[in-house]
Specification:
Number of domains: 3
Radius of gyration: 46 Å
Structural class: alpha+beta
Number of helices: 7
CATH class of the largest domain: Mainly Beta
CATH architecture of the largest domain: 6 Propeller
CATH topology of the largest domain: Neuraminidase
Shape: elongated
Helix content: 25-40%
Distance between the termini: 88 Å
Number of strands: 33
Amino acid sequence: MATPISWAQHVITCDLCDKPTQQFCNNCQVNLCVDCVSKHVDKQQFLTHDIVPYTKRNIQLVFQECEFHPHLRCQAHCQQCDVPVCIKCFLCNHKGHDVVGLSNIVVNKRKEIEKEVKEIETVIIPRFQKRKVFIKAKASKCTAKYEELEQETEKHRQLWHDKIDIIFDKLGSLISSIKDNNLVDLETQQRKLISVISEMQKTLIQNKEILKTNRVSKITNYKSNLPKYRNIPPDIDIKIPALKTNTFQDKELTIELGKYKATLTLVTLSKVSYVCLRELIDKARVIVTIPTEVKPLLRVACVGADKVWLSGEKYTARCVDIHGSLQDTVETSCCGLCPFDIKVTREGDLVYSDYGSRCVNIVVGHNMEETLINTPRDWKPKGLCCTRSGDILVNMNNGTQNKILRYQRQIVVQEIYEDEDGKPIYSSGKWMLFISENNNDDICVSDLNANSVVVVGKTGRVRFRYDGAPAWRKRPFTPRQIVTDSMSHIIVADVDNDCLHILSQDGQFLRCVENLETPCGLSVDSEGRLWVGLYDSGVVKVIQYMK
């Protein structure tokens, strides 16, 4: 049996007061107690009321009272005037107008609202919740990355401080040593002078006593020390070294003290000759070979120093470490296709181009995916490049033409497709462009349709083209993935000639890295090593080619 409290919670009260409901107005759909029936009827005396016991109520639509005919309800809607109308309105002011029953409108509106409710519940709210989780994960990862950056900065600060401390500790020790030597010399001379002065004072006393005596022998035996006393010891030449500092063209800092000299030098690329570069890269060697299950292997993208993302002809991207151990797997939303290109942002997140859906997606954390860019109509994304500044370069292809768009977030800030004469920079064709940004902001492109490398400046002006001829290969130059490194080398995979071409930033051929069977994927890690993905075997080779 229900308690009084629980029973009270289920009592349905009158809509006009707080008493229990006993009656119900079907026309107005209002709960009424016995005392409020007359109040309700009097309040809307021009309308008809169907008062029944509450248990015999009929749930139905409540039509509003007509503004012009208070005794009637508006059960229709004039489409021409866009107002509710009653039967008299329809016969008078709205005669001949297109009028629709409000019951039909309510049915359609309810369907519309139900559809909206369903979309909000099943699509929009989950999408917002997914975005919330995505942003939370991104914020967490961003915080972790900045903490790593701060820690690394502090480590280098301490390292630099240690180097500076070594220099200035040496200077302090040298100053202390020179000072001690000078003070010892001065104190030695001072002791000598004190000794001579003491001796002269004794001589004065003796001479004064001789002057007073009348003894002939003491006077005749006197020997003068005056010549000795006249020779004052020479002054010691104390040379206090000067501290000299110099800054040479903001590239070299020097500090000198006597014969000691310390130099801090900022080495710039312009000071390094091509001969020196050749000596560095001639020592290229494979240091790690990583077998993978991705066959054929199309793309590689390094994460830091010891991990790499891989993709092939399936829609799955895999992350392995330098030992070949699987670290992560991402099921991309490429609808059965493979990502056309994959890259890693400066924050370490995976970005890929979804050709079928015409978008560029980013993966933050574990399989938390979001669309970064929706490409223009009739253009589909292929090659990608994540720049140092955080921009994303996207190769767009419409089946016959190629161009490169620079995105800042979701806004296009640059388009590269024509030279200063209005001619296409990139060759017509369906094949994609591989893209990399160099240290001097050049945009380096591997153009598969022309089998050439095209390098344009930051403004989009063509600087040079490279067709592989200087390398003297047996087969035609077939460039694939292209990268640049910390020394501004341009490195491109030549899949048919089983090698890599290495160029200077100005397009001068430097050398080839040989004996790589079908190199297709290419990336540079944070230690300056090349990770080369071999198309047929699915093997990744890590190559040390610079000191």
